[in-house]
Design a protein that fits this description.
The chain is mainly α and about 110 residues long. Helix content is about 60%, strand content about 0%.
């Protein structure tokens, strides 16, 4: 019997987005060249490339897709660090990352003590 261990790997965003660009949106490859040259994608990189490829919130499926987002601890901490670095309020941060202000408030309570 093989020993199956569960590994907690993050998705390979570079592979995912390169496939999307190659198959679905080859006309946007040039717009994404600088982001695609990075070895590892940060949360902000994923949001930026997603906006470049699929556009901003004009999509009718946006609110439906928003319900299925999840964030790991490191992502949440990076978002909260972005808030500190750019001196944003909870509402401004929520708007920037398309989150609920209640979510941002809850994260701050949990992670900032």
């Amino acid at each position: 019997m093989k020993n199956h261990t569960k590994t907690n790997k993050s998705p390979d965003y570079k592979k995912i987005y390169s496939d999307i660009l190659q198959i679905l949106h080859p006309e946007r490859k040039e717009d994404c060249r600088s982001l695609m040259s990075k070895a590892i994608f940060s949360v902000q990189d994923v949001i930026k490339i997603n906006a470049i490829i699929f556009g901003k919130r004009g999509n009718t499926n946006f609110s439906q897709n928003q319900k299925h987002r999840s964030y790991d601890r490191s992502t949440i901490l990076e978002i909260l660090e972005y808030q500190k670095k750019n001196k944003l309020s909870n509402i401004q941060l929520a708007n920037h990352f398309s989150l609920s202000r209640n979510t941002v408030s809850r994260w701050r309570k949990i992670f900032n003590g």
